[in-house]
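Hi all, posting the design record for the shared folder.

TITLE: backbone redesign
STEP: 1 of 1
STRUCTURE INPUT:
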């Protein structure tokens, strides 16, 4: 055997060793991919019941939202009715009450002015302007 053949044999042995060392990570990677495929398959199989449950929940929520829409519409109608009623009440009773209050204020002011004028004509002074003095 010549030196070239020995070198070729060593190179071939090193190449086989390299292939064996690279084959181990490739086999492990293959197993990992198989496990990932199995996990994805199981997740896909378990996703159907979850999606069906989510669909049922969304249907129930939509039904409840329709009920809430009805309640909101009724509350809006009641609010409009109360607003109209308060406007009618203000128009019918508010104006006469304001007029009555203004009239009574004017009458009481006129009575006070008349009493004050009458007291001034009699020569008496009102107690209002004199502090600390006894009558």
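Okay, here is what came back for every position:
SEQUENCE:
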């Amino acid at each position: 055997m010549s030196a070239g053949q020995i070198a070729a044999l060593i190179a071939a042995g090193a190449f086989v060793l390299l292939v064996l060392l690279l084959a181990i990570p490739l086999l492990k990677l293959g197993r990992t991919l198989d496990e990932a495929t199995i996990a994805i398959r199981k997740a896909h199989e378990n996703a159907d019941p979850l999606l069906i449950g989510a669909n049922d929940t969304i249907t129930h929520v939509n039904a409840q939202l329709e009920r809430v829409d009805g309640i909101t519409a009724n509350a809006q109608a009641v609010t409009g009715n109360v607003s109209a009623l308060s406007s009618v009440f203000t128009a019918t009773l508010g104006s006469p009450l304001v007029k009555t209050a203004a009239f009574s204020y004017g009458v009481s002011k006129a009575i006070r002015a008349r009493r004050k004028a009458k007291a001034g004509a009699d020569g008496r002074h009102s107690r209002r302007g004199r502090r600390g003095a006894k009558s």
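COMMENT: Helices lie at 3-122.
Let me know if anyone wants the other runs.
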